[in-house]
């Protein structure tokens, strides 16, 4: 709104050719907002910045919204919103079921995230791809987009011959086979040890892998058994994390097996792929390695097998042709950047990925231990994700027991997983997804500072106030803004919709985390400065209770978009 009004003043003061200039309106410590467009236009107009700013003020029509606008410094326009206008705006916000979040023009958005391997334990490296992908899926759905979750699990290829033969050796109904539901690594490591130690077993495994690719019915039955056992394990992790991945979202490598030969044929016929040392490869301009030699994207190996490049090309083709994607997101580790760029460049050459379809690598950074190295066990093995989550819940339980010994045991047992898992997810989401961060459980579960439990506690405290007030809501109550702390809280609340839009556009959940933390701090100042239950009169009490309700709604909705629950009590 302020942007449009400043642009109108620009057109009136300097001509319509200036009406589309960016007013550069930003939050300010001196007023609610500052516009510094005068300095950017001064050179074009050949006038001093303060003169440009003064001319703008003369033509600026914001009296119904802002206090009188003044010019400061080299030409800043200081904009402070009127309390009366803020009161009306936050009253409308509280009555809006969407809390100011717009519904955008619908796009079909497949999101590729999580991607564990069948018959392998999920480790800490899968945490960020799963949590970030889920937050983006929730946010884009809330903005009105058709999100298609794609869990591109590793469920095909040579290793499965090894796993199938080991399954036959231990017995399909054995306790060893059932451990795939709880401890997949033990099963995988036992099969790997046999593969490396016994040539006869390795020969059987390779032969079984060929049978799998050829579609042998018994081999596929055994493969499906492995997948089903692993799905039970995946679902335990996803249930504990509270993410929205289900069996119907599995879109593993096996999904595209029937398309791989056609992918190779089309690329070869189009002259995009050529034979090199017995393998079918794509050599792309601009992709070179050491000594300037071209880096190949191998789509059919010299032994006739297919690799990740082939599967990923089939994936792109499917998501565009069959899912009708407008925007595709790959929430995958940063080291995969080169591979993805080569796949997408090949798909564009082939016409499978039109320029109208946006494709984005949401790069995921590493989770570090206290030594600033990738988080692992003391033995150097990747840290099991289930073990990490269980430790988070245990740590949160200790914090809850110490902070709220008055709560019944069953209530504390219910709260602990919400706090522990929320703490882990918030710590992950609150830093830029392509950045590294250090995993520190004690800091994560703290009830103070920029943590998930701090935000959960803020929501629980507001619920407690509303219970004490006997507030039944959601009857609309006009909000009167009279105090500085009310002014600042309302200003924060009105920014919620814009932040959600920014998260959906930039694909950066940490923006929402930062917003919610700032909102919780603004509420804390309001609560300390403006008595609610002991307000000076009934009208002020009702107004402040309405502010509490709206703050609670924004906090709970924002946390839900991040995939974090909001306990009723803490």
Describe this structure in words.
With 570 residues, this protein is an alpha/beta fold. Among the domains are: 2-81, Arginyl tRNA synthetase N-terminal domain (Gyrase A, domain 2); 159-244, no CATH class. It has 21 helices and 13 strands. The strands form 4 sheets. Strands 1-2-4-3 form a 4-stranded antiparallel beta sheet, covered by helices on one side. Strands 6-5-10-11 form a 4-stranded parallel beta sheet, with helices on both faces. β10 (327-333), α13 (337-350) and β11 (358-364) form a beta-alpha-beta unit. α1 (2-14) packs across α3, α4 (83-95) crosses α21 (538-561) and α14 crosses α15. It is globular. The model has no long low-confidence stretch (mean pLDDT 93).
Task: Give the topology, please.
Layout: H1 2-14, E1 25-27, E2 33-35, H2 37-45, H3 49-59, E3 70-72, E4 76-79, H4 83-95, E5 108-112, H5 125-142, E6 146-150, H6 159-170, H7 175-178, H8 184-197, H9 199-214, H10 217-241, H11 260-269, E7 273-276, E8 279-288, E9 294-300, H12 308-321, E10 327-333, H13 337-350, E11 358-364, E12 367-368, H14 385-403, H15 409-429, E13 437-438, H16 441-444, H17 452-468, H18 484-493, H19 496-506, H20 510-529, H21 538-561
Parallel strand pairs: 5-6, 5-10, 10-11, 12-13
Antiparallel strand pairs: 1-2, 2-4, 3-4, 7-8, 8-9
Helix pairs in contact: 1-3, 2-3, 4-18, 4-21, 6-8, 6-9, 6-10, 8-9, 12-13, 14-15, 17-20, 17-21, 18-20, 18-21, 19-20, 20-21
């Amino acid at each position: 709104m302020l942007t449009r009004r400043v642009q109108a003043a620009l057109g009136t003061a300097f001509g319509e050719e200036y009406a589309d200039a960016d007013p550069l309106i930003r939050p300010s410590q001196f007023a609610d907002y500052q516009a510094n467009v005068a300095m950017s236009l001064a050179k074009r107009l050949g006038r001093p910045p303060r003169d440009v700013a003064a001319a703008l003020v003369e033509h600026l029509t914001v009296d119904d919204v802002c206090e009188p606008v003044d010019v400061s410094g080299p030409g800043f326009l200081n904009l402070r919103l009127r309390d009366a206008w803020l009161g009306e705006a936050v009253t409308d916000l509280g009555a809006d079921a969407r809390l100011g979040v717009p519904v955008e023009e619908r796009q079909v958005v497949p999101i590729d995230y999580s991607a564990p391997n069948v018959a392998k334990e999920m480790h800490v490296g899968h945490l960020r791809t799963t949590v970030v992908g889920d937050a983006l899926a929730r946010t884009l759905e809330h903005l009105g987009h058709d999100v298609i979750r794609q869990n591109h699990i590793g469920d095909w290829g040579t290793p499965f011959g090894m796993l199938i033969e080991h399954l036959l050796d231990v017995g399909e109904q054995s306790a060893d086979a059932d451990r795939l539901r709880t401890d997949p690594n033990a099963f995988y490591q036992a099969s790997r040890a046999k593969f490396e130690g016994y040539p006869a077993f390795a020969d059987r495994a390779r032969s079984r892998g060929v049978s799998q690719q050829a579609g042998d019915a018994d081999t596929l039955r055994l493969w499906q058994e492995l997948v089903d056992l692993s799905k039970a394990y995946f679902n335990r992790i996803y249930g504990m994390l509270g993410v929205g991945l289900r069996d119907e979202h599995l879109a593993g490598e096996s999904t595209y097996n029937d398309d791989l030969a056609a992918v190779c044929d089309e690329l070869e016929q189009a002259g995009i792929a050529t034979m090199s040392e017995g393998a079918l490869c794509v050599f792309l301009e601009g992709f070179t390695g050491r000594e300037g030699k071209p880096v190949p994207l191998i789509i059919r190996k010299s032994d006739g097998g297919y690799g990740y490049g082939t599967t990923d090309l089939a994936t792109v083709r499917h998501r565009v042709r069959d899912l009708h994607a407008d925007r595709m997101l790959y929430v995958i580790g940063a080291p995969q950047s080169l591979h993805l760029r080569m796949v997408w460049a090949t798909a564009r050459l082939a016409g499978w990925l039109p320029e109208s379809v946006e494709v984005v690598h949401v790069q995921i950074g590493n989770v570090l231990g206290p030594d600033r190295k990738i988080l692992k066990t003391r033995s150097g093995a990747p840290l099991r994700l289930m073990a990490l989550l269980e430790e988070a819940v245990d740590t949160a339980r200790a914090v809850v027991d110490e902070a709220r010994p008055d709560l019944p045991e069953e209530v504390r047992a219910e709260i602990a997983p919400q706090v522990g898992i929320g703490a882990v997810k918030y710590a992950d989401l609150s830093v830029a997804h392509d950045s590294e961060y250090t995993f520190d459980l004690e800091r994560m579960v703290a009830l103070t500072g920029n943590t998930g439990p701090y935000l959960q506690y803020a929501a629980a405290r507001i619920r407690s106030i509303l219970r004490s007030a006997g507030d039944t809501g959601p009857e609309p109550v006009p909000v009167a803004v009279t105090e500085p702390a009310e002014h600042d809280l309302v200003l924060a609340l009105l920014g919620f919709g814009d932040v959600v839009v920014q998260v959906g556009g930039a694909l950066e959940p940490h923006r929402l985390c930062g917003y919610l933390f700032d909102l919780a701090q603004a509420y804390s100042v309001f609560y300390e400065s403006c008595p609610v239950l002991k307000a000076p009169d009934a009208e002020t009490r009702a107004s402040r209770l309405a502010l509490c309700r709206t703050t609670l709604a924004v906090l709970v909705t924002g946390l839900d978009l991040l995939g974090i629950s909001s306990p009723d009590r803490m």
